[in-house]
């Protein structure tokens, strides 16, 4: 793929230009950021290519920071991880900053399995309804299978609508923002409001006002960009990962600085504050490892079962659907030590068809505050979903 082709993979809400702030054209392929994107991107294996080139397909993930399994990190990375001291009554099990990327904070496995199912269902069946939410390429067609090497990145938006052309928001243009998503992000921000280590800071009012829902099939990537269109950039950008894991790169305000690489896995939440709120970041790689609890159950075993067994086997898919219903009616928002906020939804989640889309798919819901002041109208009743 050419450099220009790669750049076009950027969603238009991102600042992803080919010129420096002084207006000078720059050779992006030479930047340290671009080198790291190339290091982690998925290369299509070419059986005709010479052996030396084919080896590029075997990505070395040794340097990728993994907060889910601290022991597998390099000593250098371990030395940069810092556990955040949580409040005594905290609902989450752990949070980390990383000294290499000031202002970034990780909540590994912060969202429990039922909640991940709930948000995948919402992302695939509710947020993709363009008559309710202003979407750009979010239609999912179960009958069209895309190859990992030519898959398309899609997205949807919630809350304030983004003016893609002028790269700004208009206060009078909005769709409803799911209040349970705001509640969840507020409680995570509150967990760490007092933390200032490694330049992380989340003090003061926080309200989720807009979100981009990104759908990343294996083989897609999001190129280096900054998210700087929001009026208030002092408030954290909260980003939740669902489904397949990814390699996420976060650098500085300069493409010439080498970024750090992190695994983001299903259920992880990351908060960007301070210098990281306006830093270049990218998603060069999606791994084909969607957790089983988000997939359709495996097909029934072929061997003829006894009568009793047959009954049990036939119940399995229904049980799975039951799990979903439970998730939608009353569930804990945060994966951690106890009960937190409970969710309610009028959405019919009896259907498990969303699971059919999850194989090879990562969903990212990244949530931003746009204005300094609170905007309660965004969390309006279902009937008034759009302005
Ligand atoms: O998918 C992610 O983790 C990041 C997405 C992102 O950078 C964006 O939508 O601006």
Automatic annotation (TrEMBL):
One GO BP: oxidative RNA demethylation
Cofactor note: Binds 1 Fe(2+) ion per subunit.
The species this protein was found in: Bodo saltans
InterPro entries: Alkb, AlkB-like, AlkB-like_sf
Positions annotated to bind Fe cation: 225, 227, 281
Keywords, sorted A to Z: Dioxygenase, Iron, Metal-binding, Oxidoreductase
Compositionally biased intervals (Polar residues): 327-341
Protein name per its UniProtKB record: 2OG-Fe(II) oxygenase, putative
Low complexity: compositionally biased ranges: 304-315
Cofactor: Fe(2+)
GO molecular function: broad specificity oxidative DNA demethylase activity; ferrous iron binding; oxidative RNA demethylase activity
GO cellular component: cytoplasm
Pfam families: 2OG-FeII_Oxy_2
Chain intervals for the UniProt region annotation (Disordered): 304-345
Chain ranges of the Alpha-ketoglutarate-dependent dioxygenase AlkB-like domain: 103-368
Presence of the UniProt keyword Iron in the record: yes
């Amino acid at each position: 793929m050419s450099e220009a082709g790669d750049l076009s993979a950027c969603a238009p809400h991102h600042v992803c230009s080919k010129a420096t702030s002084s207006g000078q054209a720059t050779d992006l392929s030479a930047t340290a950021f671009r080198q790291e994107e190339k290091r982690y991107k998925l290369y299509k294996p070419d059986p005709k290519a010479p052996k030396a080139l084919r080896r590029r397909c075997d990505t070395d993930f040794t340097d990728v920071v993994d907060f889910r399994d601290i022991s597998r990190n390099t000593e250098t990375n371990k030395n940069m991880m810092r556990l955040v001291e949580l409040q005594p009554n905290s609902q989450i099990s752990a949070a980390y900053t990383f000294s290499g990327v000031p202002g970034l904070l990780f909540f590994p496995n912060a969202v429990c399995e039922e909640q991940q199912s709930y948000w995948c269902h919402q992302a695939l069946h509710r947020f993709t309804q363009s008559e309710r939410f202003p979407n750009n390429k979010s239609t999912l067609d179960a009958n069209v299978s895309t190859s990992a090497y030519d898959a398309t990145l899609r997205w949807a938006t919630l809350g304030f609508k983004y003016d893609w052309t002028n790269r700004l928001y208009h206060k009078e243009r909005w769709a409803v923002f799911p209040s349970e998503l705001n509640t969840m992000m507020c409680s995570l921000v509150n967990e760490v409001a007092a933390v200032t280590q490694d330049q992380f800071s989340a003090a003061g009012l926080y309200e989720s006002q807009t979100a981009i829902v990104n759908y990343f099939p294996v083989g897609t990537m999001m190129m280096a960009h900054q998210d700087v269109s929001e009026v208030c950039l002092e408030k954290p950008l909260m980003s939740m990962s669902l489904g397949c894991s990814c390699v996420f790169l976060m650098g500085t305000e300069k493409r010439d600085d080498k970024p750090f690489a992190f695994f983001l896995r299903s259920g992880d939440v990351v908060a960007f504050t301070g210098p990281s709120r306006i830093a270049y970041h990218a998603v060069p790689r999606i791994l084909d490892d969607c957790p089983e609890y988000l997939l359709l159950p495996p097909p029934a075993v072929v061997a003829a079962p006894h009568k009793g067994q047959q009954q049990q086997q036939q119940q399995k898919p229904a049980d799975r659907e039951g799990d979903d219903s439970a998730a939608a009616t009353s569930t804990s928002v945060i994966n951690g030590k106890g009960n937190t906020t409970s969710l309610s939804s009028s959405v019919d989640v009896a259907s498990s068809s969303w699971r059919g889309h999850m194989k090879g798919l990562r969903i990212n819901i990244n949530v931003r505050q746009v204005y300094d002041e609170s905007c309660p109208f965004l969390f309006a009743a279902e009937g008034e979903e759009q302005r």
